[in-house]
Amino acid sequence: ELAEKDSQLSSQDEQLDKQKKLLPELAAQLKEQQATLDQQQSDLDEKTSLLATQQKKIDNIIGVKADVIEALQKEFAKNDVSVDIDAQTGALTLNANVMFDYDQSDLGKAELANILPIYCKVLLQDDYKKYLAEIIIDGYTDTDGDYDYNLELSQRRSLAVAQYLTEIRENFLSSDEISDLQNY
Fold first, then answer.
1. What global pTM score does this model have?
2. Cys staple from 84: which of 24, 93, 102, 168, with CB 3.0 to 4.6 Å?
3. In a 3-state reduction of DSSP, which class is residue 6?
4. Measured distance CA(175)–CA(173) in Å, rounded
5. How far lies 57's CA from each of 37, 41, 50, 128, 140, in Å?
6. Contact 76, 121 (CB under 8 A)
7. d(C-alpha 141, C-alpha 182), whole Å
8. pLDDT, tens digit, 9 for 90 and up, residues 91-112
9. How far is it, in rounded angstroms, from Cα 69 to Cα 88?
């Protein structure tokens, strides 16, 4: 029985020696895994910080958009001009019947003479113009006629509005603002 215990002890000593030899390698692997984990945590912290910064920018832009929409509504109301302003986008929707005769792209300028100066005046205020990426003018038609004809008519209508805006810009914009507007 003593011989058997010596044999077991000897076997356990061999296993212990093998494990002692593996210990530095396992410690090195653990250290490497810890370094990887630390780097991943650092990357995560950096991305979390970047995400928080971007969220602040988004919140700021959303706030500015809401401020612009409110400023537009107030300015139009102050000037007793009735327009529909989309509360989500700030887009103005004007009735095509007021600006264009049926099947025509010749612009009825009276309505726009009241609206465009106010719209541009608000958008080009120092607080807002740095957030302004573009001014989009869309033209629409009814559903009469075929697609190609209506597409061409809507494009002519958009162009008529853009050209009119260019014609009257000196009436309500300074030369610096005109230069800024040309950049959009």
1. 0.58
2. 93
3. helix
4. 7
5. 30, 24, 11, 14, 34
6. no
7. 27
8. 887 766 667 777 777 777 777 8
9. 9
